[in-house]
Specification:
three-stranded mixed sheet
Length: about 290
């Protein structure tokens, strides 16, 4: 007998309505929690609330646009896929550019959000906060980690980003997933990859809060951010080993697209952590 969890949770908040949905509710909840985390940090450092409002705007806009463009550019499909009869079986974003705007149909990539966040936070730090970029990155790391946790929980209720088949007792049977995931015409128990990632991100959030409030890490620019990058993206890298690939090429590559995109971010985190640990305490230097 195979033990597991039959996951029949619907993503609908209102029966028969695709929007608003639980994914959107969880997405917004993560942002709200992150907002209050940063608010408390800013209050402890006597930073004005006006700065926080602008920071939230930069983060939300960069996250949504970056995640959408990341999905389009990294995962595709780029052009229409047709069958032998010339019928379109899969629409490509470059063949139908208007589809890029249809975020409500799904398709967000965290790597894309990360890259655009770097750009947005650079301009925020230089033009708005008038502080070093690492100062900003250290303070947004924990809020981004908890928001990422809630986004993955949203993926769970959406029955998307599922894992490979498993016989482990905590396997989930996603009864609403696409027919392409059926095995011998049946739904099977799979790794709850979304839940694995959500747990990684939650633990990252707790650790970063501890570092900020209980250690002097916030006075060493890059230490909190470097730790965030290493743990979060290493978790993503490991979970990808038990996750269904998001592109056809992932079935043939030793490392899939998500893992290839995670490696440079992990390395970046190691660099920032190393440099941060070797910097003088900013409270002592006054910078």
């Amino acid at each position: 007998m195979i033990f597991g969890i039959d996951w029949n949770v619907s993503s609908e908040l209102i029966e028969g309505w695709s929007t608003p949905n639980k994914y959107g509710l969880l997405f917004v909840s993560g942002i709200i929690i992150g907002f209050f985390v940063i608010k408390r940090m800013f209050k402890s450092e006597k930073i004005q609330d006006e700065l926080l409002d602008k920071l939230l705007l930069y983060i939300v806009v960069a996250t949504v646009i970056g995640a959408r463009l990341g999905h389009v550019l990294f995962y595709g499909p780029y052009f229409d896929v047709k069958n032998s009869f010339g019928e379109i079986v899969e629409r490509g974003y470059f063949s139908h550019p208007i589809d890029i705007l249809k975020v409500y149909e799904g398709g967000l990539a965290s790597h894309g959000a990360t890259f655009l966040l770097f750009v947005a936070l650079y301009f925020f730090s230089k033009r708005i906060a008038k502080k070093p970029m690492l100062w900003t990155l250290d303070r947004v790391s924990a809020p981004i980690a908890i928001a990422s946790c809630f986004i993955r929980l949203g993926n769970l209720v959406n029955h998307e980003i599922i894992g490979d088949p498993t016989s482990l007792p905590w396997g989930f049977r996603f009864n609403q997933e696409g027919s392409e995931y059926l095995i011998n015409g049946e739904h099977v128990f799979r790794h709850p990859a979304q839940l694995y990632e959500a747990i990684f991100y939650l633990l990252t959030f707790v650790l970063l809060l501890y570092m900020y409030w209980k250690t002097n890490a916030k006075n060493k620019p890059g230490v909190i951010f470097g730790t965030f990058m290493i743990i979060l993206w290493s978790g993503r890298f490991l979970v990808e080993f038990v996750k269904v690939g998001q592109t056809a090429r992932d079935e043939t590559w030793a490392l899939n697209t998500g893992q290839m995109l995670s490696i440079p971010l992990i390395i970046l985190g190691i660099v920032f952590l190393y440099l941060g640990l070797h910097k003088k305490d900013i409270k002592k230097t006054g910078h």
